[in-house]
């Protein structure tokens, strides 16, 4: 019975950094576009996620890819994987 179980894939999200005031932490806003199940209406749902930024190099307005990870603090459960686009 030496079978190795594979871990499930971790969630990956794209978002825009809205705050970088904390040390090694950024706040990333995730936007989902959802269609209402009954009425023909499309609306946006937003959520703020706290992500770990080891280098403190990410600034407000950057577009980043974040990945789910183990709990790092009371609110932080995500880490920054890469910066897709720098703020202008």
How would you characterize the overall build of this protein?
With 88 residues, the protein is mainly β. It has one domain (12-85): OB fold (Dihydrolipoamide Acetyltransferase, E2P) (Beta Barrel), CATH 2.40.50.140. It is built from no helices and 5 strands. The protein has strands at residues 12-19, 25-35, 42-52, 63-68, 78-85. Strands 1-2-3-5-4 form a 5-stranded mixed beta barrel. It starts with 11 loop residues before the first strand and ends with a strand. The relative contact order is 0.27.
How widely separated are the two ends?
55 Å
Helix percentage range:
under 10%
Apparent shape? globular
Count up the domains. Answer: 1
Largest sheet: 5 strands, mixed, barrel
Contiguous helical run count: 0
The assigned structural class equals mainly beta
- Trace the largest sheet across and list its strands: 1-2-3-5-4
Oligomer: single chain
């Amino acid at each position: 019975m030496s079978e190795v179980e594979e871990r499930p894939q971790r969630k990956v999200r794209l978002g825009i950094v809205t705050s970088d005031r904390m040390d090694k932490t950024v706040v990333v806003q995730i936007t989902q576009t959802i269609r209402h199940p009954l009425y023909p209406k499309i609306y946006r749902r937003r959520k703020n996620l706290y992500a770990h930024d080891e280098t403190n190099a990410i600034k407000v307005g950057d577009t980043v890819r974040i990945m789910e990870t183990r709990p790092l603090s009371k609110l932080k459960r995500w880490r920054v994987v890469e910066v897709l686009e720098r703020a202008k």
